[in-house]
Amino acid sequence: MPVKLRVFIVRHGETAANKDGTIQGQLDTELNEEGLRQARLLAEKMKETPIHIAYSSDLIRAKKTAEIVLEHDPGVVLHERKELRERFMGTLEGTRVPGIARQAIMRSDKTIETTEQLGRRALAWWDEVIKHVEKNKNTSKAGGEGLELEVADANSLESAAQTTNILVTSHGGTISTFFNAGLAQGRLELGPGVVFTRCWNTSVSIVEVDEKRRGRVTQYADVSHLAKEQVRVTNADEVEIDARGVEEQDVPSAVTVSWRAEPIDSRPHSRNT
Q1: Which listed residue (34, 52, 83, 86) is catalytic?
Q2: Domain range holding 15?
Q3: Is 11 annotated as a binding residue?
Q4: Which residues are named in the active-site annotation (predicted)?
Q5: Model pTM?
Q6: Measured CA distances, 10 to 50, 127, 141 (Å)
């Protein structure tokens, strides 16, 4: 089945809160120097991939990551979506709470967005994305007339009518929850050899969608653009799924994992499974 959409789902670059283990949730934090550098490395890798449509969380760290990537596609409008925000962490936002205590608080604190609520809003955004399948299909049948896709320039029309590339920048907890919810509901399927691991800063996951709106995950959390660079494992906003630590095979090839030593180990030890 021909691929109609190719969706590049990117986690934002590193922030100071990522570095020190602070729970951000929907706090509007900015990229630090490392995060800006990561975004530039990603932009360099993706510069040969024309982007036709771009979505981002409306939080600064995600928007800035998208803006850097889109410097190679200056005609593309960046659409901000609240649905792509990180999980709302309520009273935990801005705190540094060790993983076990954090999970206990989340079971009883009603100010915190539940996994089910987060999954529903992430999938609501996905429903908006896959509407472009019909637009793409109708455009292809019409020979390019009446194109509704927001492409950068006239030179993009032919490729857009075949496969539309969509950039999405969001957050680690939202991305991992989206993929889990999509698989659970049968909206997504894993391609051959694809496994879930940590959702690293500026990692790229790819979903290919056919004309029947079926999504296949062909890549998850790739950070090959950070080869031989350090990537930070800790993500205090990502508090589920199980209690196993990162195993050697979870670490991307040629990437050094940077653990932050602390008196109290606040690493979340979560895997996106």
Answers
A1: 86
A2: 3-258
A3: yes
A4: 12 (tele-phosphohistidine intermediate), 86 (proton donor/acceptor)
A5: 0.79
A6: 15, 18, 31
